[in-house]
Specification:
Blueprint (H helix, E strand, L loop, with lengths): L4 E10 L5 H22 L2 E7 L2 E9 H13 L3 E11 L11 E3 L3 H8 L1 H5 L8 H19 L1
Parallel strand pairs: 2-5
Antiparallel strand pairs: 1-3, 1-4, 2-3
């Protein structure tokens, strides 16, 4: 019997030292590891990087999500990690992505640079369901632009 699907929604502060090139290199490292390891763990999700913040949604069997999140907690690139939602989920919202990434292109930078004003995103006061909605909508918009 398959494990029940769980979803974790969190944000963290970027602690990657260095300039834009170093940050881009580390984000590529994060994405590479996620895209290699997540399919084996039955994890899907999306990562948003915006002005010093990471926002991420992880979906998968509870043991896999918990194990991955424990690694994130120990990852020195993340600070002030705040879990906004963790619990069972009725279905996957990111089934097409081992790890979608939002924020790579110049168009994304322009879009995500204004996300706070457009969506009300404030790391200090956003609710898990609202962050999930923002990340999901942006991932679908990104997929449509790439098609």
């Amino acid at each position: 019997m398959p494990s029940e699907l769980y979803r974790c929604v969190y944000y963290s502060r970027n602690l990657i030292a260095g300039g834009p090139a170093r940050i881009a290199e580390e984000i590529e490292s994060i994405l590479g590891a996620a895209r290699r390891n997540n399919p084996r763990l039955s994890i899907t999700g999306a990562l948003l990087f915006n002005r010093g913040l990471f926002a991420q949604v992880l979906e998968g069997p509870c043991p896999s999500v918990e194990s991955l999140f424990e690694k994130i907690l120990r990852d020195e690139r993340h600070g002030d990690i705040q879990v906004l939602a963790f619990g069972s989920a009725p279905g996957r919202l990111f089934s097409n992505w081992s790890m979608a990434f939002l924020g790579r292109s110049r168009e994304d930078e322009n879009l995500f640079g204004h996300i706070g004003r457009q969506t009300g995103f404030s790391a200090e006061r956003i609710a898990g369901d609202r962050l999930l909605e923002i990340v999901r909508n942006l991932a679908y918009e990104e997929e449509a632009r790439a098609a």
